[in-house]
Amino acid sequence: MQKFALQRLLNRHAKCHSEIKRYLCTFCGKGFNDTFDLKRHTRTHTGMPYKCDQCEKSFTQRCSLESHLRKVHGTHHQYGYKERRSKVFVCEDCGFTASLFDEYVSHLSLSHPFSAQLIKLNSSGAMSKFKSDISPSSSSLSGSSR
């Protein structure tokens, strides 16, 4: 029998045994109990954005790539205190990846203007800084770069 140190961890685990799946994959209809599992699964349809630069393997999660690099290629990444890895922004609708937030937002705006990702960014306020950085003459969102 599994033991959980925190009640919230037990609650989360209990959901995996539930017949009701709140989050459904738009590609195949498979159900999941949380958004993280759905996002990880969706990438099996849209592509694996984390690619090994030493071989042909690709992964749905950064931690899987890092584990692969460590185990297969003997590569260890050392990050200092408060030092971060470079972030990859992944479009969950088509698998497009961008290393810059503005490229990611531009892609969403042009290719998936009604996507849940873009709606979430707009409603969370995450776009406010991005929008304020764009001058009226800027073509970041209306240009034809993608």
Automatic annotation (TrEMBL):
Source species, domain of life: Eukaryota
* Biological process, per Gene Ontology: epidermal cell differentiation; negative regulation of cell differentiation; negative regulation of DNA-templated transcription; negative regulation of multicellular organismal process; negative regulation of signal transduction; regulation of keratinocyte proliferation
Task: State a GO cellular component annotated for this protein.
Answer: nucleus
Pfam families attached here? zf-C2H2
**Chief location:** nucleus
This protein's record includes keyword Zinc-finger: yes
InterPro entries, per this entry?
A: Ovo-like, Znf_C2H2_sf, Znf_C2H2_type
Which molecular-function annotation in GO is an example for this chain? RNA polymerase II cis-regulatory region sequence-specific DNA binding
Instruction: Identify the keywords attached in UniProt to this record, alphabetized.
Output: Metal-binding, Nucleus, Repeat, Zinc, Zinc-finger
Which residue ranges traverse the bilayer? none
- Does Transport show up as a keyword for this record? no
Locations listed in the record: Nucleus
Q: Where is the C2H2-type domain?
A: 23-50, 50-78
What does the similarity note say? Answer: Belongs to the krueppel C2H2-type zinc-finger protein family.
Recorded protein name is C2H2-type domain-containing protein
Taxonomy of origin reads: Eukaryota, Metazoa, Ecdysozoa, Nematoda, Chromadorea
